[in-house]
Fold Dihydrolipoyl dehydrogenase.
Amino acid sequence: MSTKNFDVVVIGGGPGGYIAAIRAAQLGFNAACIDEWKNEKGGPAPGGTCTNVGCIPSKALLQSSEHFEHANHHFADHGITADNVQIDVAKMIGRKATVVKQNNDGILYLFKKNKVSFFHGRGSFVAAKDGGYEIKVAGAAEETLTAKHVIIATGSNARQLPGAEFDEELILSNDGALRIPATPKKLGVIGSGVIGLEMGSVWRRLGAEVTILEAMPAFLGAADESVAKEAAKVFKKQGLDIQLGVKIASVTKGNGSITIAYADAKGAEQSLVVDKLIVSIGRVPNTIGLNSDAVGLKLDERGAIVVDDECKTNLPNVWAVGDVVRGPMLAHKAEEEGVAVAERIAGQHGHVNFGTIPWVIYTSPEIAWVGKTEQQLKAEGVEYKAGQFPFMANGRARALGDTTGFVKMLADAKTDEILGVHIIGPFASELVSEAVVAMEFKASAEDIARICHAHPSLSEATKEAALAVDKRTLNF
């Protein structure tokens, strides 16, 4: 078996990995990417958790379930009569699979277009060799590669709850939650983070009775408190039963059901019986099978690969990006790190600003933010001004029939520099990009207030929030 030599080998084909390989190839390196994800037929399915069992399929199901919700509850407001609306869950899941495959195939096309060599299998270190590294690919056909530079982008796995290990039939990770074959009558969710809220929303819209059990005493603790408060109110009105301060005692599987015994926030013992249980209590870095010991790659106590600010590991010419290292476990953060590392290998100055990474929860209403929350600014003793504008006063939101939520802007009290923007409402995931751009350019609230925004548009709410920082809104 011959050895194939490369300048850069990327282990992992998720958002961080495939983007890193493509950028390395664009910069003139002989690049390869190794990824082991398989489709239903056993073929390659690059894109990692995000494409296969995360960001992309969850958005497909959220879109389908939102259409169903609108047909059942909101079409009449527009004068549209739709009687006896039904949902074909199998067809919905099939559409989701098609969307996933389109993304898988798109990545394979991009590899071909950019002359990235792709190897389908699990990549692992063999040894340091001749100023580089020998890497084994264990797949249908075993390969041996050598690389001067290695970029590790192996992602993360769903964290298991002790005593409630995933079987993907009754107790589900994000993977199983995306493949439920029929709407359960009762659905339990442990964890009220992004995955829990998004998947809970999907199946609630399709008719499931959804109970979310959260260990933390505060809801959406990472979000701005005013956004979290509004979200809790809206989700409760929609029918999501969210219980906070819960302590799980046991999870017991029965004949087609699961019983969760827990103590509520007041310490009272409770019992919940559900048809399916989604466990979404975070994710853990994935270094399984990497054979890090063979080369002395350093991991921290969480199992994450230890890197510096430039994503360098303790080994020369070995880098790591994305969920397998420190920082937020977000696909777009991984992409930016992948690009930055490829550019650093080329002697350029790749840059990732953790302070302007946007966060999004694709519920309805959507939730998005960038920068500091109000509670963070208070804790840090930063003097700030706040401006807020509700979508109920926005003409486009009224026309859409979705006036829930608001845009909130936080700016430095002295310099007026934008420190954070927090949005709950329609298309928040798109609106937050203006705030990211503004903050990257160190814009002030006055800058946004002085920019002409199209009318009518949802983006006008951002302009009005900027005006509100100076207490001079025009439409509220």
Remarks:
- The chain has a mean pLDDT of 97.
- Residues 171-281 form a domain with the FAD/NAD(P)-binding domain fold (CATH 3.50.50.60).
- The radius of gyration is 24 Å.
